[in-house]
Amino acid sequence: MTEVALCKILFVGNKDGDAQQLSWLISNIKKPTMELMHVPEAEAVLNQRSAADASVILLDADSTGDKEYETLKALRATFPEIPVVLLTDDEDETGTYAIRNGAQDYLLRSQLTATALSRSLVSAIERQRGQQHSPETTPLLESATAVLNRLPMGVILVTASSQVLFYNGKAKIYLDREDGLILDKNRICQASNTNENKQLAELLANALSPSSEGKSEGDFAMSVTRNNSDSPLTVMVAPIGTGVAGKGAVLFVSDPVEPVELSIDAICRLYTLTPAEGRLALGLTNGYKLDDLAEEWGVSMHTVRSQLRQIFRKTDTSRQSELVKLILTGPAALKAAPIL
User: Fold this and answer.
1) Are 320 and 207 in contact (CB under 8 A)?
2) What is the topology classification, in CATH, of domain 264-336?
3) Whole-prediction pTM
4) H or E, element range at 71
């Protein structure tokens, strides 16, 4: 991906204090070169249909006066080639839902620093470049991105070189916390713990190897400890694509404290599973291991393994990672997430 040499920022917001703070922060950023343009009202930009050759639009959420992201949607529709980053005070509501409505990223005003500003804007530009497609396919791909952002768990797409190409809204929450999983300056997803980072690298290598024959499910799943939580994150990797150029992997990241609220009935109906098989599929999707589920339910390992074989047969999968990928990217997962 081409390095960003010049970042021209169009700040849309009616607070002069914010514009002055941004100007000061930019003066402390040595690389890349940054230029700031300030427009108080989004209507002026939209009416003129000109973003003044901006590399990225920084939109102040508090100055738009709308709660349905109409301004954000209008900017994305008018300038689909320019990423939009939202400046906000509300992470849980405005930030997360803004990403689902087309923003590439969001910045919290209370945590605004030169480093955070530079990293967010440059990453937004790089992701936008990686997502550039023809006008005919752009709406379809934006819809696909919106679907991934509605999934109730983190999705991180990496290349064969382990560089992150995309992450959805839930994954961004985990990465922004920098607790367990982090995104380094080269856009490589890493584990905070050194030993676990080696394990994650090996896990990705296993998934991206030419052949995964002979590898157990343990080669495709791991737990990532967090300093601010007694419960680790669960990471499962599934290979995607074919050939050298198209090979990659998707990381499914979940928090066991926040179980995926899927309907067993929906899973059973979609994949013609029995209630017991549906319960097992949901347990695996939530990151539990076979032996833990067998112990919790008071059944033998022979029973759960037999159920798992039936699930594989009915879903045309052969590994737990493939099964989890199927369920979490299917209709059952979408129904579990709010419809925007």
Assistant:
1) no
2) Arc Repressor Mutant, subunit A (1.10.10)
3) 0.47
4) helix 70-78
